TrEMBL record:
Function of the molecule: Protein-L-histidine N-tele-methyltransferase that specifically monomethylates RPL3, thereby regulating translation elongation. Histidine methylation of RPL3 regulates translation elongation by slowing ribosome traversal on tyrosine codons: slower elongation provides enough time for proper folding of synthesized proteins and prevents cellular aggregation of tyrosine-rich proteins.
Main EC class the enzyme belongs to: transferase
UniProt cross-references to InterPro entries, sorted A to Z: Methyltransf_16 (IPR019410), SAM-dependent_MTases_sf (IPR029063)
KW Ligase (keyword) present: no
EC number: 2.1.1.85
GO cellular component: cytosol; nucleolus
Protein name in UniProt: Histidine protein methyltransferase 1 homolog
GO molecular function, one term: protein-L-histidine N-tele-methyltransferase activity
Gene: METTL18
Quaternary structure (record): Interacts with GRWD1 and members of the heat shock protein 90 and 70 families; these proteins may possibly be methylation substrates for the enzyme.
Similarity comment: family membership: Belongs to the methyltransferase superfamily. METTL18 family.
Organism: Carlito syrichta (Philippine tarsier)
SUPFAM superfamilies recorded: S-adenosyl-L-methionine-dependent methyltransferases
Chief location category: cytoplasm
GO biological process, one term: methylation
Amino acid sequence: MTFQFNFTIEGDLGNELSLLREGALTLDSSQELVSETQKREQKNKKCSTEQFDLSQDHLWEHKSVENAATSQDTDRLFNAANSARNLEPHEKQPCLRVAKEHAIPKDLKKMLENKVIETLPGLQHVNISVVKTVLLKENLPGENIVSKSFSSHSDLITGVYEGGLKIWECTFDLLAYFTKAKVKFAGKKVLDLGCGSGLLGIIAFTGGAKEIHFQDYNSLVIDEVTLPNVVANSTLADEESDVSEPEMKRCRKLKVAQELYKCRFFSGEWSEFCKLVLSEKLFVKYDLILTSETIYNPDYYSTLHETFLSLLNKNGCVLLASKAHYFGVGGGVHLFQNFVEERDVFQAKTLEIIDEGLKRFIIEITFKYPS
Ligand SMILES: C[S@@+](CC[C@H](N)C(=O)[O-])C[C@H]1O[C@@H](n2cnc3c(N)ncnc32)[C@H](O)[C@@H]1O
């Protein structure tokens, strides 16, 4: 399924793309476009089971001890959800893109090279158009999602690219809600699920969260956007200022590293991500799951629900922001709320309705029976 909306070719990227990848793209030929689409559909059917190396050596060690998840709790709730489940016969399971953890590179400054930093109130983020242009020029091996997204004129290519190379509208709604409702992050373990740029998790990070995990479907999004954004919002930005003494520099670097140590980064499909984190013996469930524009595809509802179920602390909550309806894909707030109600594990409460342009919602999801 290819979902097209809100897609703009920033600046001259479209032209640049044709020049850069002459012959490799199918923008101008409708005949070829069809065959590309068919190829992609066939590929989607097979499902990407791309294996990633998880080189644990390079990962910074994380140890959590409190509130470790018990498999019994999770099993009980899974069963409750499963028995209430009434899957439509046509419901497709999402592709199982294997999850991996992304190590934080040692050379933090290098991550911000070739990046243009933009500023929002209380936040910095890389300019994504520049990231895309550089990626197209470099033609790096691995996930080729930038050119795939261009050639299909789409922000979403099911099972291939799930939209992380863009800051979606509801992220801004949730950011505004954090301020308005004075949401507290201090001391909490937070997950930015389907993070893309990671702005929600970054606010939790700068707001004193104890631990913040970022998850995106696409590996490239984590490496090229999420990680640089987190680094740009750490104290690294002023690392060099007024510090000439090697010893002071060393201390400063250590401080930045200690701060970033609170953040972990994951890519991969949701059920695979769950498997990966739950395989850690001392995994601690999240107090807060932040998620924006992740309920567009009804085929993913069951996995998303199970992700909440297996990763959310009993007394925790999910703050979800979404458009009322996603034309072309079929998902939306009411469909997802009905899905949640039928499973009878969580309760969903509307916190805010933003009724300008396309109607948007902020929803809080908590366990119905927390004890
Ligand atoms: C439309 S984008 C929204 C990005 C970001 N939250 C924002 O608001 O700007 C949807 C995000 O959900 C993630 N996502 C969607 N479906 C997924 C799935 N089945 N497994 C893992 N991640 C998924 C993608 O990685 C993507 O970043």
